[in-house]
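Hi everyone, sorry if this is the wrong subforum. Our group has a chain we'd like a structural model of before ordering constructs, and none of us has done structure prediction before. Sequence below.
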Amino acid sequence: MLTPVHWRVLLPLIEGLHSQSVVRDDLAQKLFPEIQPMDFQTAVRLALGRVATDDVETSWSDALVVSQGDIRPYTLTTSEGMMLERRQMFLDLPPAPVFCAYTGLGG
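Answer:
Right subforum, don't worry. Here is the predicted structure as tokens:
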């Protein structure tokens, strides 16, 4: 999951996708008439299109760019239907501790 939303907020939303939801009234449309529902495929295409054109309202990468000035610490590319994120950081450290920290990521 890649999102600027904290995982504690996101997790119940993701877990809710396991359950079928059947709407039996139009209360939501009455309360939020300006919101037009769309199907999943359209929403995903729209979201990926915004990422591809760097038109995302907020993202974790925004914080990285601000903290590192004008240096963009990542690149996003698309290859064979996948989005690839590449990051690079130059460190003034000996290789051994950097390798140890890197290989320890993700368990």
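For your construct planning: The helical segments are 7-15, 27-31, 40-52, 60-67, 95-103. Strands lie at 74-79, 82-87.
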